[in-house]
Structures are given as structure tokens and as C-alpha cells.
Specification:
14 helices; 11 strands; seven-stranded mixed β-sheet; 20% strand; alpha+beta; four-stranded antiparallel β-sheet
Length: 364
């Protein structure tokens, strides 16, 4: 979450897209994850003092005026009943209630909130949570309570705002969007029940090899990504439970592989992560387009997996630039967008770090 403050009480913040490098979807099954902040795309939120409290609709993402009824229907079929206004309203509510419950007093001045985003829709790059994350940071600064709300609690607030709207997700995305950089996360049941959140360990971004991103500009077959896996897991299905445990162990091995810069191991872990997901969810749930994005990379010998639950793929080319060029050509033929992944370093400030519990502060 990047900071950009200006004069006259106006506060602006950016939150970047994220890539789940290893471990997803085990973060919602008491697992582990390694993710990084993706500088290719971001959402920005602007807060300015105002007489009335105003949530400003985005001219593109929150359309309320249409050329015709068929146009409205077509728009809803492609983009759904979405937009950022509901996200901004939800985080305002969650933030206010949290402060009230924790005896954090807020001044009574009003504000105007507006947002913008260039994160492609339906690509599994955490576009919704980026808007919420940037908005939360604006509220922390406007009300001058950044020092009172712990860093490790903030991802929960973001997730709770999304849960208000029926968005099904885990903490992983919100953690890396709050912390920035490259983060190792442990969501074990013990931590989640005792602390209410996981243990989050920032890692230096220099440990990563060059990575690439593949996504479809017009995703038509994104699959039914949430499928029946969660219900099977809750019902005690042995195959799902053992497979999810294996996925949860991948970031543990990946943490060591990155520290040792063992990129052969990293490639194997990325591929294994996707293969396990595919076995659990099945091809119908994942969607043909998503699977093809993974396969196009594998056909040139690159390692690949979903960045999230589908829509975009993160790729490592162990043979270097020549292999990346082969993949770029293959993506162009297949109609996919291919670009180098820009990894953003951590952007925590001293106030943020001071809010951490002493045990977690040692990991920064």
C-alpha cells in the first residue's frame, strides 16, 4: 500500500494488484502462502475534506446512465452488478465499527472518497481488495489513527468489508496488499484461533527470479472456480484434505528455495501447486481458458500456475530471455497478454511497523 499525501488535507493512496506465487488456495484452509505485490496494476483512492460525506461513483466502473436497455443488459452480463462504490461504503462501515468497538475516537469532519483502478477485471489479481485497501489507508490518515490499528489486523478489516458484499476470499491477498513486497504467510489453525490472523514474514524481493504474467483481456470462460471443494473439505473428504495439506506445504519448501535461490526447485513447486489444484477442482471448475494459459507456458518448458483462482497466470522461465521470447510469441498467437511482472518492494512506514506486536516486528 503506497503512500501519496498532498496539501489541503487531501489524502491519496495506491494499493497494487497481487500475485499468489505459492500456496493458494490453502490460505482459506489453514495453510500457507507466498505472494508478492504486482506493480503492473493498481487501484488508487483519493480522500478530500468535504461538507457532506460523499462516495463518488467512477465514470466507467459505476455506470448508471446507458445508451439503451440492450446496452445495460450487455454491460451487466459482462461486468456484473459491480463497481467500487459498494466497496468504499463497506470499508467505511467496517472501519467505523472497529473503531467504535475498540474505543478509538474519531473526529466528526466529513470527506469525499473517489477511486480509480487499472487492474483488469476477472483476472484473479485482487482488484476489489486493492480498492478497499487503498481506501482503508486513506481513512487511517484522515482520522489520524494509523498508529492505533495494528498492521496485522488491517487485512482482516479489508476482508470483512468484502464479506459484507458476499465476496468469497481468504486473507492472503489482503496481507500482501497491506504489507507490499514479498510476504511469507502462515495461516495455521493455532495462529488463526489464538491471534485472529496469521503470521506474516516479509522477504526481500531480490530473492525472486524474473517472473512473467499471462492473462486474457476478455475472459470468457473463467470457470466455476469455487466449486464444491470447500464443502468436501468441511465434510472430511480424505483426498481433498490430504491434497490441501500438500498445497500448504509448498510455501514452506518455497521459502527455503527462495532463500537459497534454488530456482529449479521453485519451478517444480509452482507446477506442483497448479497440478494439485487441478486434481482437486477438476477442469470444468477451472475453465478451459484458464487451463490453456497454464499449458501455453508449459509447452515451452516454463513453470506456471494461477495468480489467484483463475484469470491470470504467473510464469517462471528457467531458461531465461530466449524462453520468455518463445512464450511471448506463443501468447500472441493464442490471443493472451504477456508481460514481465514488476515486483513492488514493501512500502511500510515507521508508524506501520510500530503497530506490530514485538514478535512480528522482528520479522521486518
Amino acid at each position: 500500500m503506497e503512500d501519496d499525501r498532498s496539501e489541503n488535507g487531501i489524502v491519496e493512496h495506491k494499493a497494487y494488484a497481487r500475485v499468489g506465487l505459492l500456496g493458494n488456495p490453502s490460505d482459506v484452509y489453514y495453510g500457507r502462502a507466498i505472494s508478492f505485490s504486482l506493480g503492473n496494476f493498481w487501484a488508487s483512492v483519493r480522500l478530500e475534506p468535504s461538507t457532506d460525506l460523499v462516495i463518488v461513483p467512477h465514470p466507467t466502473h459505476d455506470l448508471v446512465q446507458f445508451n439503451s436497455l440492450p446496452y445495460l443488459v450487455n454491460r451487466l452480463q459482462t461486468d456484473g452488478y459491480y463497481g467500487g462504490v459498494r466497496l468504499l461504503m463497506a470499508i467505511c462501515k467496517i472501519f467505523y465499527n472497529y473503531c467504535k468497538e475498540n474505543n478509538i475516537s474519531l473526529h466528526d469532519r466529513n470527506f469525499k472518497l473517489s477511486y480509480d483502478t487499472n487492474i483488469p477485471r476477472q483476472t484473479g489479481l485482487s482488484g476489489s481488495s486493492a480498492i478497499v485497501c487503498a481506501a482503508l489507508s486513506c481513512l487511517l490518515d484522515f482520522y489520524k489513527v494509523r498508529h492505533l490499528i495494528k498492521l496485522e489486523v488491517r487485512p482482516n478489516l479489508i476482508l470483512n468489508a468484502e464479506k459484507e458484499l458476499g465476496i468469497v476470499a481468504g486473507l492472503q491477498d489482503r496481507v500482501v496488499q497491506v504489507y507490499g513486497g514479498l510476504v511469507y504467510m502462515d495461516f495455521s489453525k493455532k495462529h488463526m484461533e489464538e491471534l485472529g490472523h496469521g503470521l506474516y514474514t516479509p522477504m526481500t524481493v531480490d530473492l525472486l527470479p524474473p517472473l512473467y504474467l499471462i492473462y486474457a483481456e476478455n475472459p470468457s470462460d473463467s470457470g466455476k472456480v469455487h466449486s464444491t471443494v470447500r464443502q468436501k473439505w468441511l465434510d472430511g473428504d480424505k483426498f481433498i484434505i490430504s491434497s490441501m495439506e500438500e498445497v500448504a506445504n509448498i510455501p514452506l519448501e518455497g521459502h527455503t528455495a527462495l532463500l537459497e535461490k534454488d530456482y529449479t526447485k521453485l519451478a517444480n513447486l509452482m507446477n506442483r501447486n497448479f497440478d494439485l489444484r487441478r486434481q482437486m477442482f477438476g477442469d470444468d471448475a477451472l475453465g478451459a481458458l484458464n487451463i490453456e494459459m497454464v499449458e501455453v507456458a508449459r509447452r515451452v518448458g516454463a513453470a506456471s500456475k494461477f495468480t489467484g483462482s483463475g484469470g491470470a497466470v504467473v510464469v517462471f522461465c528457467p531458461d531465461g530471455p530466449s524462453q520468455a521470447k518463445l512464450l511471448e510469441d506463443a501468447c500472441e498467437k493464442a490471443g493472451f497478454v504477456f508481460q514481465p511482472a514488476k515486483v513492488m518492494p514493501s512500502f511500510l512506514n515507521e508508524v506501520d511497523i510500530e503497530t506490530l506486536s514485538s514478535k512480528l516486528k522482528q520479522t521486518i
